[in-house]
Design goal:
The two termini are about 25 Å apart. The chain has about 70 residues and is mainly alpha-helical. The chain contains 4 helices and no strands. It has one domain. The protein is globular, with a radius of gyration of 14 Å. Helix 3 runs antiparallel to helix 4.
Length: about 70
């Protein structure tokens, strides 16, 4: 299931996406950056979609997302 999700997200961000074909501007993300973003999302999706609690805070979610962007 995680592989299907990753492939779906990659397809949405890919150069062959319908949205990118309709737009005349270039992509904001390289293929490499998209793969890193998708991999980080798949690895941390539980954190991103869990409800806030004493264990999962907005700060924790922002740290995870920041770590993905820095990689």
């Amino acid at each position: 299931m995680a592989d299907e999700l990753a492939m779906t997200i990659a397809r949405v961000f890919s150069e062959n996406s319908l949205a990118n074909n309709m737009a005349s501007r270039s992509s904001n993300w390289t293929k490499e950056e998209t793969e890193i973003l998708v991999d980080g999302y798949v690895e941390n999706r539980e954190v991103f979609f869990k409800k806030f609690s004493c264990k999962i805070t907005n700060e924790e979610k922002e740290k995870k997302f920041g770590a993905i962007l820095e990689s």
